Fold this protein.
Amino acid sequence: MLREISAGGVVVRKQVDGWWMAAIEPPPGPSTQVANKKGSRSLKKPVLCLPKGLVDNGEKALDAALREVREETGIAASLITKLADIKYMYVRSWGDGERVFKIVSFYLLRYESGQINSISDEMRIEVACAKWVKLEDAPKLLAYRGEKQMAKAALEYLSSHAEA
């Protein structure tokens, strides 16, 4: 079984109306069949997730998280704290179809500079758009269970650490 090590970030920004978080929407994938009263129909449902990616050889997880955030959202951020590691298995849907054990280290990051969604044309293969969402809504909006947990952990941390 292959192993993959990735890192990502929950990037937050304080606004008058509360905390906001940077999220990305990958390009649309295969259609999802949705049943309704008249039968089933194809629907491309947008997926919202956290910026993350593989840790390069010799790179530290935090550096990878900061790089991935910059590449996938167009913004620069700084460390507040490490949130947690998520561990899961998946089967590759491309190439060899091999099973992969994956660990993703997530960090709570503070927005520093940059314009959200100001990313390179090459990155559009991975990211359709990057946008700010209310952090309190993120656990409902994010597509993946582990990432929902990271948004909840960020909310808990920020509510108990006024200095953040």
About this structure: The chain has one domain: 2-160. The chain is about 20% helix and 45% strand. Residues 145-160 form the longest helix (16 residues). The helical segments are 61-73, 138-141, 145-160.
